[in-house]
Amino acid sequence: MAETESAGDERLRRWRMVLGGGEGDGTGRVLGGRDAAMDAALAALYGGGGGGGGRGTGERAGGLEGSAPRVARWLGDIRTYFPSSVVQVMQRDAIERLGLSTLLLEPEMLEAVEPDVHLVGTLLSLIKAMPDTTKETARAVVRKVVDQLEKRLATRTRATLTGALDRSARISRPRHRDIDWDRTIRANLRNYLPEHRTVVPERLVGYGRAARAVRKEVVLCIDQSGSMAASVVYASVFGAVLASMRAIATRLVVFDTAVVDLTDQLDDPVDVLFGTQLGGGTDINRALAYCQSKITRPADTVVVLISDLYEGGIRDEMLKRVAAMKASGVEFVALLALSDEGAPAYDREHAAALAALGAPAFACTPDLFPEVMAAALEKRPLPVP
Q1: Residues 6 or more apart from 191 whose CB is under 8 A from it?
Q2: If DSSP states are collapsed to H, E and C, what string results for 274-290?
Q3: What distance in Å separates the CA atoms of residue 179 and residue 186, rounded to the nearest whole number?
Q4: Fewer CB within 10 Å, N- or C-terminus of the chain?
Q5: Element containing residue 303 per DSSP (H, E)
């Protein structure tokens, strides 16, 4: 009986935290201690107005009132009461709902926040307005996020793409240690000898050893309009990982209405990110024209366009460029987003036009990206979700 009452009390407590304590919430609960402090932190962000802290049974109301000291205290509170994943969501909501972006220009504020991909995107959009006293702190925040992403993504990406490069260089007279036995057996099944229960391998299929010379070229063409912030962060990290592989020559190009080649900064994705300029218009055709001009080995080149396809340039010319690149042997990949944010908004007409050219446009998570690149390098169908 006591256990049932305890479970019921816990349910009422949770509903009270969700509903906010107004007269109509129906719980009749009065919060105290840690629960009251958590409720006050929630009320400051999600409450209906300024003033009270949302404690007890009063109407939930709050607000951070644009005060840097109060926001800093609030950031400290939510890190105390909530797990990191929840803190990141609340920070994002605070920036969007309460217009706190300008407060991020203060070093003290940046030191109090929980770094994540979305915060990096916000900082990059503010970079022009950021005073010199804040830039070093902002760079440290970006560095922390980039290091976390590289630790998570780099090893698997290198392993997956190294395998793809080896498979794309199959040779017909391999050394014993380079024989791909699975493919060799399948290629010689017609030579099966039932009496000996064996296959006579007239033709050997093997892997080519990854040479020191460049085997493939990859061009990452990234839309840096404001809606693509998370994609820019992930693409910069992947660009640095690809650039670290000897067998792949990587070029990274970002664009809005102008085109900027950041290839010479690929050894440090933080430098790449601070070289971007989030916001502005979009001219995909102009960006693809630049990328096309840099292709010297079409049959060994993969072009990855990361964009929501809202084209401000010449649509027909953009499509003609894609068709021309594919006709020359280029593997063309169109990603509507490279992030964990779910289904993105995108130009459906342009996506359909690309699909008609044999270049399906789809959103891709960071965890799927190595598989997409491996398929493109091997010239096999892409693992479209």
Answers
A1: 199, 200, 201, 202
A2: HCCCCCCCCCHHHHHHH
A3: 13
A4: N
A5: strand 301-306
